[in-house]
UniProtKB/TrEMBL annotation:
Protein name (database record): Phage portal protein
InterPro entries: Phage/GTA_portal, Portal_HK97
UniProt feature, compositional bias: Polar residues: 378-394
Domain of life (superkingdom): Bacteria
Residue ranges, annotated region (Disordered): 360-394
Membrane-spanning ranges: none
Gene3D superfamilies registered for this protein in UniProt: 1.20.1270.210, 3.30.1120.70, 3.40.140.120
Taxonomic lineage: Bacteria, Pseudomonadati, Pseudomonadota, Gammaproteobacteria, Alteromonadales
Length: 394
């Protein structure tokens, strides 16, 4: 079916990176090795878990009125059961976002029922997908099946999330783009591990005025140092020297070499890659309650909103037909991310009720409380306030 298509380069960026030369720091960086850096692992977890935990709502819009369509089949797919494999909606969205952040691309196969509605979303591993394009135009996808055979799918049959795309067809992950910075962080981490393995401090020299006449003495000294004094478990043990030997260290400590400061800088670098405040990577060095609150707001506005918009538009393009796309809206509900403390929350509710924006029962539903009789009435105090202003002005 797609035999006349030009095949794009294989979509396995990790394989290409692992086969290519290491980074300048000597570290091979791909989606697996990068997660060994705690800051990268934390950044991926923060973003993917935040998106996966958000409910997806479907709205029907008539003129300027939007009505929630709770029984819509898209809500069932994205909030309850995306497929028949026993996967929860949370796990599905989590794996999808992790793949997009780590690999730059995330794929899910869309299957339809007899009426043409999507009824199943099945995750596809990026390594099993080849993008088919012709003259920078997306034509479809080829996927590797578990049987070893290949299946050709139309672009309408694949949900494809892209991160930082240059051509609108294929995405790039922060790990691919900033691999040198991640390689530096991995090198610093390995350097510290080797220091501890070798006894925390770097190597020194042994000095003596005597000469070793017995070669066995040298071998015995090496074996003693390796077996009894190397590694953190042997730190602090007494070192017995013979032949008038004296130990003289020749290297600086980790603190003197500012190794710890360099390790902290790698956390800030990773935060920049994923547009996160260091607070979200568990770095509370300069944290206060005030800047944590502002960081939380920036997280939604500057980090999550572009990501959610990207995902929402792909959901709409692939899960809705042209007929329903104009009046059907798929949207993440981000209200819980803005949920303030109880005092601030009830102040907002009070203003909303007094100004007729919300009814008491709508507030109670927001707090997971049952409705009360008469609670669906909206306050008219804003009308009375407007009339009193006009009367006073006249």
């Amino acid at each position: 079916m797609f035999s006349f298509f030009k095949r794009s380069r294989p979509n396995n960026h990790d394989l290409l990176l692992s086969l290519s030369a290491d980074t300048t720091s000597g570290q091979a960086v791909n989606s697996q090795t990068a997660q060994a850096l705690p800051a990268v692992h934390c950044a991926i977890s923060v973003l993917s878990e935040a998106v996966a935990s958000l409910p997806v709502h479907v709205y029907q819009q008539t003129n300027d009125v939007r009505t929630r369509a709770q029984n819509h089949h898209i809500e069932r797919l994205l909030n309850q059961a995306p497929n028949h494999n026993g996967m929860t909606a949370y796990d599905f969205k989590l794996a999808l976002i992790r793949s997009m952040l780590l690999r730059g691309n995330a794929y899910a196969r869309i299957e339809y029922d007899g009426t043409g509605k999507p009824n199943q979303l099945t995750l596809l591993h990026p390594d099993s997908v080849i993008i088919r394009k012709d003259n920078q135009r997306l034509l479809g996808y080829q996927i590797a099946l578990e049987t070893g055979k290949f299946a050709n799918l139309l672009k309408e049959e694949v949900l494809h999330l892209k991160y930082h795309t240059d051509d609108g067809i294929e995405g790039k992950s922060p790990i691919q783009i900033c691999r040198e910075a991640i390689g530096l962080g991995l090198a610093q981490q390995e350097h510290g591990a080797r220091l501890f393995k070798n006894g925390v401090k770097p190597s020194g020299v042994f000095e003596t005025d005597s000469m070793f006449k017995d070669e066995n003495s040298i071998k015995r000294l090496k074996d003693s140092l390796s077996d009894a004094h190397s590694g953190t478990s042997n730190t602090g043990k007494i070192l017995l020297l013979e032949q008038g030997l004296k130990f003289k260290p020749i290297s600086l400590s980790n603190q003197d070499a500012e190794w710890l400061a360099a390790r902290n800088f790698s956390v800030v670098d990773v935060a920049r890659m994923f547009k996160l405040s260091p607070i979200f990577l568990q770095d509370y060095t300069n944290s206060t309650y005030a800047n944590f609150t502002e960081a939380s707001r920036a997280f939604l506005g500057q980090t999550l909103r572009p990501l959610l918009t990207n995902i929402q538009q792909e959901f709409s393009n692939k899960l809705l037909s042209d007929r329903y796309r104009t009046n059907t809206i798929i949207e993440f509900n981000t209200a819980d991310l803005l949920r303030a403390n109880s005092t601030e929350r009830y102040e907002v509710y009070d203003a909303a009720i007094r100004n007729g924006v919300m009814s008491p029962n709508e507030v109670r539903r927001s707090e997971n409380m049952p409705p009360r009789e008469g609670g669906d009435e909206f306050s008219q105090s804003w009308i009375q306030k407007g009339q009193s202003v006009q009367d006073g002005g006249s």
